[in-house]
Structures are given as C-alpha cells and as structure tokens.
Amino acid sequence: MKKQPAATAVRLVAAQAADWPAISALLVAAQLPLDGALDHLPGFIVAFRNSDLIGSAALETYGSVGLLRSVAVTEAQRGSSVGSQLVHAIISRAKNAGLESVVLLTETAHAYFPRFGFQEIDRSAIPEPVTMSIEFQSACPVSAAVMQLHL
C-alpha cells in the first residue's frame, strides 16, 4: 500500500495589504460582514496552506476589551482545526496585549465558541467602548448572539 503524503502544515501569519482581496472573498463566501474589516486589517491573522489563504480571524481593540470578528475558513478546510487555531491565536494576541476580555457577535456559530470559554451575555452587558464598533453599530443585526470571554 502506498503511503499518503502528509497534509501541508497550516501557517498562521499577520495579514498584509496584499491579502485583502482573498480575505474579503472569504468573508463574502462565509456571509460575514465586510463593514469596517479593511480598517482593522492589522488585527487580522490569516491561515495559509501552501500559498492558499484558507482562513481568517481578527481582533479589534477598544480600550481593555477586544472584539473577535471575521472568523472564517474555506468550505474545503472546515472541520480541519484551522478555525480553532485561528481563534486560539486571537485569544493569545488579546492576552499578550493585556486585554481584560474579548467579545463577539454571531448569528450562526453560538454553539462553536463555548469550547474556547466564551459565554453568551445580554447585549446590555457589552463593555461600552465595543458598542462603538461598526460590528455593533450596523454590521451585525440586533438578533446576533453576544458572547464574552474573560481573560
């Protein structure tokens, strides 16, 4: 029997301006909002397999609180731990930055984030600086679940 070649490792790196077209295409395919994302490109971590961008996640900082957004993985890579690697990388970045907590909004993945320690909270409990983000102001509907992770 022939041995299958090992899958190429995933590389997580800080996003560069040249990555934006692939990031925006990924977000559109995942039906995630683009509003404000380009303004926060330095907060993005992207996942590559070979030269293919296969995932993204971003951290926006508002005082002592981070906003996790734009967690997306290509359909072909879902279930391969790429999303988990990205979320862990963002949480590490938030801890290294000395943030107190990270919040997120989701309409479809509220069952995914508790594995990282996120808990659903009432929208009225959101730390005020984060409510000024485009995600809270207009990009995500009021029906989106709000989750928070204390660091």
Secondary structure elements and their pairing?
Layout: E1 10-14, H1 20-29, E2 44-49, E3 52-62, E4 65-73, H2 82-96, E5 101-106, E6 119-121, H3 134-139, E7 145-150
Parallel strand pairs: 4-5
Antiparallel strand pairs: 1-2, 2-3, 3-4, 5-7, 6-7
Provide the CATH architecture: 3-Layer(aba) Sandwich
Low-confidence stretches: 1-5
Structural class, please?
alpha+beta
The first-level CATH class is given as Alpha Beta
Shape: globular
In the sheet with the most strands, the strands line up as 1-2-3-4-5-7-6
The number of helical segments is 3
Distance between the termini: 48 Å
Give the H and E element order: EHEEEHEEHE
Total strand segments: 7
How much β-strand is present in the residues?
25-35%
Q: How does the major sheet shape up?
A: 7 strands, mixed
CATH topology call? Aminopeptidase
User: Superfamily at the CATH H level?
Assistant: Gcn5-related N-acetyltransferase (GNAT)
How would you briefly describe this protein structure?
21% of the residues lie in helices and 30% in strands. The chain has helices spanning 20-29, 82-96, 134-139; strands at residues 10-14, 44-49, 52-62, 65-73, 101-106, 119-121, 145-150.
What do you see in this structure?
The protein has 151 residues and is of the alpha+beta class. The chain has helices at 20-29, 82-96, 134-139, and strands at residues 10-14, 44-49, 52-62, 65-73, 101-106, 119-121, 145-150. It has a seven-stranded mixed beta sheet, with helices on both faces. The chain has three helices and seven strands; from the N terminus they run E-H-E-E-E-H-E-E-H-E. The protein has a single domain (10-150), classed as 3-Layer(aba) Sandwich (Aminopeptidase). The model is unreliable at 1-5 (pLDDT under 50).
